Amino acid sequence: MINRLIEGIKKTEAPIVVGLDPTMKLLPPSLYAETVRDFGETPDAVADAFYKYNKGIVDAVADLVPAVKPQIAMYESYGIPGLIAFKKTVDYCHKKGLVVIGDIKRGDIGSTSEAYALGHIGSSVIGGTEYRGFDEDFVTVNPYLGSDGVMPFIKVCEKEKRGIFVLVKTSNPSSGEFQDRICDGRPLYELVGEKVAEWGDALMGESYSYVGAVVGATYPEMGKALRKIMPKTLILVPGYGAQGGRGKDLVHFFNDDGLGAIINSSRGIIAAYQQEKYSSYGEAGYADAARAAVLDMKADIAEALG
Question: What is the set of active-site residues?
């Protein structure tokens, strides 16, 4: 799957992943009103609106980007209907030929991590029949429990040829409370990066590992250091756009081959219609506004990379 993602980046010339993170504040009111007519003001109405919203965006951008990243928490907020919308979104994105990165940030003791891995990027056998759960291509993994929590994911990746992105240096303001702590004379995030590189060396694709890393766009100097520590690691970079990251901040996340990173934007794309720059599209044109935002992001990154 890592080879397919790299090929997708090359084909589209867009190292971009669109975060499908719907919330009630981002939904076009008219779209929600439509689902309320069918389901009333219930979790089912929200879930149906989320799916239709995602579908419109995916239809508008699927030819421009190689991947999407739905954040499961946004769907879990609405219980089982929300999770159904998450699964329908994953399936629809696959139909459109997109790689799906499930942003689940799981990580626990060995047996629990194995269950998470099987449920999201693997399968379970019941009565001799194989069943797939959410069926993403990659998932995000929290390494706080150490190798016990990560190796079950890696074992499933090896079997299924799917991948993970391990949290190394996240984009949120308080990430430094733990991630920047000095351990043995070095920041903790560098030690985590070294471990990610070690895990990845044992599970390589053609040029990059099935074990990727998450490094926030809001910390470009740290990204520069981590790029050297993890030369064969594909870096998933959140924090572009709404969180302040711009193309000029991202140069050092890439390798000399112009690859090595994939940049995420969520609100900046899916809610572009709410921005003054794209307001002319109106709420009915939210998907077209998202397409315009992707094209602008692609141009911004291309200019930064030269």
Answer: 105
